[in-house]
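Deliverable D2.4 — example input (structure tokens):
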């Protein structure tokens, strides 16, 4: 596998020429860009790699190596020697179509030698839980599914996914990786502290939460946010929701982030399902634990490749983590690189949701995590 990393800045253009010599049908190009990025650099990228599989989406911040940028495009180019690639696209007009979109992607990519699927989705019109369910229903359990939901900073106005060199909304894309040469590992960890009483989800529909303990969910959230309530939904990123089943023997916890609020119904819309009957608690940030969570994700994902074999790391972290960490946000992307074996190239983005298995097993939707996907190819 041959790797290259490039970056485009709105004010300065491309930092160095694109490695057009790596173009080919076994080349994967990943591009993560600002939501307001102009069409020109995306078109240039597509023109430079006409034979390659090009995948990308908008962000709430672009990860490039150990740095984080805004108003930029972070690009990784990976040319495989023995790994096949296939691209699939599905439209998502509204969240209710998420499971069907997952089914369509799985059907388009399914094959006996499929090893992994990397998914990039519209971040505002999708129910990530249902998208993952559609993928899991139609893919074998040994296929590793990871990815993320596109971002738009703290604005929640428009996200896009790259299709045929252009930015489009209402779209989900995925790339399948095929053959025995490719190894894909993953890791996902948070680092948030749970606080306040555990509450019962007494009324919800899909990813819309109406009541906790029989009380309006939005009203309860505003009580905890205090003065920050006027900044919803963005300030809700600072206080995600931890969910577990009503079975005390189940230790699995998933985190959910707010995407929208509805004053009329006093409800909250999240990036994934909030099952009625589940148990919920609010969470808040601990700076050191967030960075430590990123290190733990890298430890999970770093299974050593062959000596000297290059590794690609796709880092997808939640926008809420960046808002909390502020100027210290680069500490978490530095922490991942410190744990990963060299040589490694890291690109990624801040998202509205992360897709990865919880540990082992099938894929889940996560929020407020650092989620890593590492890829390397055996000689």
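Example output (designed residues):
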């Amino acid at each position: 596998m041959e790797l290259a990393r490039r970056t485009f800045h709105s004010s300065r253009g491309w930092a160095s020429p694109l490695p057009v010599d790596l173009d080919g049908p076994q080349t994967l190009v990943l591009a993560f860009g600002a939501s307001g990025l102009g069409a020109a650099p995306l078109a240039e990228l597509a023109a430079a790699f006409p034979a390659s599989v090009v995948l990308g989406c908008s962000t709430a911040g672009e990860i490039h190596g150990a740095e984080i940028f805004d108003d930029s495009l972070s690009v990784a180019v990976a040319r495989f020697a023995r790994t096949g690639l296939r691209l699939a696209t599905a439209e998502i007009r509204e969240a209710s179509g998420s499971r069907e979109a997952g089914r369509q992607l799985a059907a388009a990519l399914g094959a006996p030698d499929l090893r992994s699927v990397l998914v990039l989705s519209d971040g505002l019109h999708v129910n990530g839980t249902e998208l993952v369910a559609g993928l899991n229903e139609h893919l074998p359990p040994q296929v590793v599914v990871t990815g993320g939901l596109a971002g738009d900073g703290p604005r929640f106005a428009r996200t896009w996914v790259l299709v045929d060199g252009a930015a489009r909304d209402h779209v989900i894309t995925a790339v399948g990786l095929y053959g025995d040469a490719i190894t894909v590992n993953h890791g996902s960890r948070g680092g948030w502290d749970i606080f306040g009483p555990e509450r019962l989800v007494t009324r919800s529909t899909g990813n819309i939460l109406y009541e906790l303990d029989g009380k309006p969910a939005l009203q309860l959230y505003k009580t905890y946010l205090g003065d920050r309530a006027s900044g919803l939904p963005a300030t809700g990123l600072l206080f995600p929701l931890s969910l577990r089943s009503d079975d005390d023997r189940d230790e699995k916890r998933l985190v959910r982030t707010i995407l929208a609020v509805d004053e009329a119904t006093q409800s909250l819309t999240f990036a994934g399902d909030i099952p009625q009957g589940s148990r919920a608690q609010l969470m808040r940030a601990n700076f050191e634990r967030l960075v430590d969570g990123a290190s733990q994700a890298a430890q999970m994902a770093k299974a050593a490749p062959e000596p000297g074999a290059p590794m690609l790391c796709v880092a997808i972290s939640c926008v809420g983590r960046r808002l909390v960490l502020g100027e210290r946000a680069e500490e978490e992307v530095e922490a991942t690189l410190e744990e990963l074996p060299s040589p490694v190239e890291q690109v990624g983005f801040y998202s509205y949701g992360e897709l990865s298995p919880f540990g082992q097993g099938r894929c889940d939707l996560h929020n407020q995590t650092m989620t890593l996907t590492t890829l390397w190819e055996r000689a």
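The helical segments are 39-48, 98-109, 128-138, 217-225, 287-301, 319-325, 330-339.
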